[in-house]
Specification:
The structure is a homodimer of 216-residue chains. Chain A is an alpha+beta fold and 216 residues long. Helices cover 38% and strands 27% of the residues of chain A. In chain A, the strands form three sheets. In chain A, strands 4-5-11-10-9-12 form a six-stranded antiparallel beta barrel. In chain A, helix 2 crosses helix 3. The radius of gyration of chain A is 27 Å and the shape is elongated. The two termini of chain A are 39 Å apart. The interface between A and B is large, with 36 and 36 residues. The first copy, chain A, binds a DNA duplex (19 and 19 nucleotides) through helix 3.
Chain lengths: 216, 216
DNA sequence: ATTACTAGGTTCCGAGTAA
DNA sequence: TTTACTCGGAACCTAGTAA
């Protein structure tokens, strides 16, 4: 079967739920897929001759079933996608110096209270900054659960909200629960992320600037 | 993006593992996919302008990344396939009279012994025969685990092997563990399957000929 | 009403080649 | 070496229509 006809097979798989037979007509499929009746007729013949479906012409249209080969073909695609989406995602970053701002933020009681309830611990007063690939961050975070830390206002100034992703951070020295945070008012570009944990990450991981750590 | 270009996106998803960037060249992809360099160049432009990938031309080729939209697109496909393949499969059949052969077979000690070890019980001496859709059987059994019952020879005659699938059978009256068996020497067409259980299924399910039961 | 053939029009592909 | 344009030819799609 031509790779390009995959969408036809997917359509038929949906309609047959992979096992029931499906009574329809070429013009009905044509209307649903936005192509001509003639093309549907031809495509069904193609897909059937590739052994992907069983096709029977009746008085009132066509009756279609997925064949074992068709199911096998789609199952293999399913396996590939499953592998891609469930593979352990990780983000590699190099340690860099923060601006010392993190320490100030982490001391705010209204942040601390929220972190305690979301993460189960009060973070160490200081963040570990990592230089990462901005695109890799997007992809990595897409697979992680986000929890929002609300901003607030004090007499002196206002503090913005933060997106907080619980993660695991490790290098050759250690592995610890931590959280990746992205302030709404981001002082870094998207090439830098901040990590917080119950303890001082620099100490626990025994890292200095430019050392690599892995976030999972 | 054109539905037909899905195979390109799948190829790129594999190569990038959905998140890493992937340095390659149009001619390299062309060779791997068996199409021309020119077509690859055009397809990459198409897929990129559909927002599915991020593409950067470098001195030595192209660098490709999946975009969030591309991942979303594939994730939705993954979800569809997952739904299809993990949906609870069931087989509906109508009770019919056997030829009384089942009872004879079920009395053979060498079958009984194997059933005991595979199913955990000695089946009732008699089978319940169901008329089913032969294609639906294939599809249904494809999702089930098969266990083989060996044939054997006695002084009087030889007995063939059986394929045995542990299943759940139910109707409005009851639900019980049972097994679907398909003799290697099938006396029925593929339109009939035989079911065995610890007890007499006709009695437990309170069924007579033509009543419907569901096999899961 | 169907499916599916033929014919012609459109799209798509790839060889050549510019940048 | 690249990517990607032009353009001729191949592949593909759909209108018309037979069965």
């Amino acid at each position: 079967m031509n790779q390009k006809d995959l969408y036809i097979l997917l359509y038929l798989a949906q309609k047959t739920q992979l096992q029931q037979s499906f009574k329809t007509s070429t013009s009905l499929i044509a209307a649903e897929l936005g192509i001509s009746q003639q093309t549907v007729s031809r495509k069904l013949l193609d897909v059937a001759s590739a052994g992907m479906i069983q096709r029977r012409v009746t008085l009132s249209g066509v009756e279609i079933r997925m064949s074992p080969e068709g199911r096998k073909h789609l199952f293999s695609l399913y396996g590939d996608l499953k592998h891609l989406f469930t593979a352990k995602q990780e983000l590699i970053g190099a340690v860099t110096s923060g601006l010392g701002e993190g320490r100030f933020y982490m001391k705010q009681p209204l942040y601390k209270k929220q972190f305690q309830s979301i993460l189960g611990y009060v973070p160490f007063a200081g963040t570990l900054n990592l230089i990462v690939d901005r695109f890799a961050v997007d992809a990595f975070l897409a697979t992680k659960k986000m929890q929002y830390i609300n901003g607030f206002v004090t007499k002196k100034r206002s503090f913005g909200g933060l997106r907080c992703y619980p993660i695991l951070i490790h290098n050759t020295n250690n592995t610890i629960n931590a959280a990746l945070i992205i302030p709404d008012r981001n002082i870094h570009g998207h090439d830098t992320v901040e990590l917080i944990a119950a303890e001082c990450l620099r100490t626990v991981l025994q890292v200095k600037n430019n050392d690599e750590v892995v976030v999972q």
